[in-house]
Design a protein that fits this description.
Layout (H helix, E strand, L loop, with lengths): L7 H13 L5 H4 L13 H6 L13 H14 L1 H4 L15 H4 L7 H4 L5 E3 L4 E3 L1 H11 L17 H13 L26 H11 L1 H4 L6 E2 L5 E3 L17 H11 L10 H11 L16 H8 L10 E2 L2 E2 L22
Antiparallel strand pairs: 1-2, 3-4, 5-6
Helix pairs in contact: 4-9, 8-9, 10-13, 12-13
Length: about 325
């Protein structure tokens, strides 16, 4: 339970305490969720879901050490891959329960389907390519201390892939298993509304993510709940900026303590509210590439607010302090 007694400080202190005493949400701790299949539609689908191995099954050898390093990076990316993270997010903020939870893009479902062709960058992607894209877009690596994602061949990729490989043991390769991605969501009856979404956010999301959407930190500065927009959140190249993707994730996984609580319409509305705020610019948008150019090149074919003017602000321009050092090179647009 989260109590917003005494204002934001009480909430942050309580968040820190639940982490320290093992009562935190599983995406913060990596502990197995008690209800990882709650968002599945019906008992039939639940029965089909793959159960990844328990942490206790990690082997006590050199490979197991790599798996544990990968899990540590996944759970606290800003600490364990510090040089390549330019915001306040960790992998486990979107891939819940340490990448185990169905319908939150679980890593056991992703690993077996790579290499595969991705239309985002129009090339066959390896798993290393895919992780590199996550650092570039979801972790906003251009604002990181190194100015970019880990270089190819980095032990960061090696350990993360070891973790994903171990987690997916027993699944056939080349087949997309039930529970992959963010799951399906129906189209809403009404056009998504930022105004309705703001009310949904205030009633269901602000207690964790803050009324301003900037998340919560404990008294030591440790992120307890991640920011959903602004300079320390995912950038305009990340998949979560697409309203349909965010709506599916929210429908199946949020609120964290009551996944599935929101109606389909509420999920679409609050996704529209979250994704219609400023955030770091798409790292492919460099040099003289304008927002209008970016809209035509990368953002014209999906649901999103990139390129729109909301509350007097043109979305996609980013923030003045942003570095352009991490822009993907030509032909190197591995997508997040």
């Amino acid at each position: 339970m989260i109590l917003a007694v005494g204002g934001g400080l009480a909430l942050v202190v309580l968040g820190s305490l639940v982490v320290d005493f093992g009562l935190a949400p599983s995406w913060l701790t990596g502990q197995k969720a008690a209800r990882s299949t709650a968002a599945a539609d019906g008992e039939g689908e639940k029965a089909k879901l793959f159960t990844p191995p328990d942490e206790s099954a990690i082997p006590d050898d050199e490979f197991g050490q790599s798996v544990r390093r990968g899990m540590a990076i996944f759970l606290d990316t800003g600490t364990n891959a510090h040089d390549f993270v330019g915001n306040d997010l960790s992998c486990s903020n979107c891939h819940l329960d340490a990448g185990r939870q169905a319908y939150s893009a679980p890593m056991w479902a992703a690993y077996p389907v790579y290499p595969k062709y991705r239309s985002k960058n129009k090339m066959v992607n390896t798993m290393e390519d895919r992780i590199k894209g996550c650092f570039t877009y979801s972790m906003n690596a251009q604002a990181s201390p190194s100015g970019g994602p880990p270089p190819y061949g980095s032990d960061v990729y090696r350990d993360l892939q070891a973790y994903f490989f171990w987690m997916s043991k027993g699944l056939p390769t080349g087949e997309k298993p039930e529970g992959a991605g963010f799951g399906k969501i129906d189209k809403p009856e009404k056009e998504p509304s930022r105004e309705r979404g703001e009310a949904v956010f205030a009633a269901n999301c602000a207690v964790c993510h803050g009324a301003d959407g900037q998340g919560q930190k404990d008294i030591n500065g440790k992120v307890v709940f991640p920011p959903l927009w602004g300079p320390r959140s995912y950038n305009w190249g990340a998949g979560m900026h697409k309203v349909d993707a965010a709506a599916a994730f929210i429908k199946h996984n949020m609120p964290l303590s009551q996944p599935g609580k929101l109606s389909t319409q509420e999920a679409w509305d609050v996704a529209a509210f979250v994704d219609s705020h400023p955030r770091p610019k798409d790292p492919r948008q460099v040099g003289d590439i304008t927002v209008e150019d970016g809209l035509k090149k990368w953002h014209h074919s999906h649901d999103g607010f990139y390129g729109q003017t909301i509350d007097g602000v043109l979305l996609g321009t980013g923030f003045p302090q942003e570095s352009q050092a991490a822009a993907p090179a030509a032909g190197d647009n591995s997508g997040g």
